[in-house]
Amino acid sequence: MLTTPRTPEQLAQDLLGRRFEDLDAEEQRVLGRIASGTVIGQDADELAASRASVGDRLADRVAAIGGSWGFIIGFGLVLVVWMLVNSRVLEYFGVHPFDAYPYIFLNLMLSMLAAIQAPVIMMSQNRQSDKDRIAARHDYEVNLRTQLEILRLHRRMDYLLETLEARKSAEAGEEA
């Protein structure tokens, strides 16, 4: 009778034909989960969210806002208004420019914004790449587990077919 292996070591030998110690850590973890009957862990987004610090969430929010069309259009409007307020045209209406052309203060503000925003966006990108690595490991585990389960089912089907054929042969031998 076919016995279902219950330990990761037995599964490694039965399904992969290798010793458990010879497998990499990912394969060992998958075999351990198959042997224990547990489902795959948290989703990559859930795992990344559970590990996120306040700074990580802030970086993601800044990157989401800074990389949007709303921000680009709004910031463009602020620049146009700044230039209008600080142009000589408005002197006719009694408004005196506080940052006249060539807009040195505006350039300073833009440089400071870029100096702060760029590293924050890079932090968010690094976090996204960590999320992608978690998702890739999760996908690999799902694929490996699926392949191993299909292998187990295939072997069970082979056993059942062999048993059925043996019974048919035994019944045919008794009738004769």
UniProtKB/TrEMBL annotation:
Record bears the keyword Transmembrane helix: yes
Keywords assigned by UniProt, alphabetized: Membrane, Transmembrane, Transmembrane helix
Zinc-finger keyword on record: no
TM segment ranges: 62-84, 104-123
Pfam families from the UniProt entry: DUF1003 (PF06210)
Annotated InterPro entries: DUF1003
Record's protein name: DUF1003 domain-containing protein
